[in-house]
Design a protein that fits this description.
- By secondary structure, this protein is an alpha/beta fold.
- Helix content is 35%, strand content 16%.
- The chain contains 14 helices and 13 strands.
Length: 404
Amino acid sequence: MGIVSPIGNDMAEFEKNLMAGVCGIDWITRFDTTDYKVKIAGEVKDFDIEAYLSRVEARRMDLFTRYAVAAADQAMAQSGLAGRVAAERFGVYIGSGVGGMGTFVESAENNLTKGPRKVSPLFIPMMISNIAAGTIAIRYDAKGPCLPVVTACATSTHALGEAYRAIRHGYADAILAGGSEAIIHGLAVAGFTNCMALSTRNIPDESSIPFDVRRDGFVLGEGGAVLVLEEYNHALARGAKILAEVVGYGNTCDAYHITAPEPEADGATRAISQALTEAAYQKGMKVYYNAHGTSTPLNDKSETMAVKKAFGEKAAREDVYISSTKSMTGHMLGAAGGCEAIACILALNKSLIPPTIGLKEADPECDLNYTPNQAAAVDIDMAVSTSLGFGGHNGTVVFRKAGE
């Protein structure tokens, strides 16, 4: 696994801060926020791209691609897979919700102020959402299936799920899967603010507060999260250290509204239920559920409803331990699902549920166990990660401990 995030730029730092409940949200430094209603975000801090790329290479990549390369390099180093898989059987499923926003903004400004001849010939290949996947495929000579999923906030959950299916059905032996996003720019912040999606509280540790009655919108985050998925026997044959097994995947659409969740949470419920059925979930199992948990009034309420419907209300109250790690990272959009899958795998292996920080005033309509403010030691049987994207996209992946 590999991670670049607002709470850590490698696995050790991320795990430490995740379980300690460290808030990665702070004042925006990327642009002058004087005229903006929203002045906070979950920025990646102290990111050293030269640990992964030369300056020349880095200048030819948008920031979202740099984050993806760093996360992929970490995952590959941990996996020991390099040179141990046939190029034609090695794939890349790394998506982005938006792609090269920074490149787009800079190039648009050049076009308007300096004229079309001043638009870089690298504008298109740096901006397009598939370029992180393409760049990483070139970097690792991955000539198998390459599918950069784009489903907004559900992007990297779907990338993981589709990679799981591709491997399970024999199309690849291993796939680098996840997502990346670098969208903390004035244009994006203005757009999300004006569509009433973001919190305008502007208190760094009290704005991304999922399931709290005071919640008023999400906080933008950024980063990259990549996992190496590998066919089980292929991993065993080369002596790989298996961190967890993917055992279920659900993919549905609300077909209801471009931003709002369906009021009865039907689509989310079906995605969770599909994944649980495939994973052979049984009542009585202890489950960690990493919620989409965006801190918006509608999402948190409808997701609570979906958990109750998918698990059954009794199991949801007694056996499901929930948290939203977006309370610490903000919403990493296309990278969120990958980051949260990593959180699930850490919870499985450490028997420790990461907290939902900032949860101080419980919403009566969000009445489950959201692990408020402190990590909880629980030996769980299964970990579930759900992502719900603009456009009604719903994705759920389920993990179990290796060999169980």
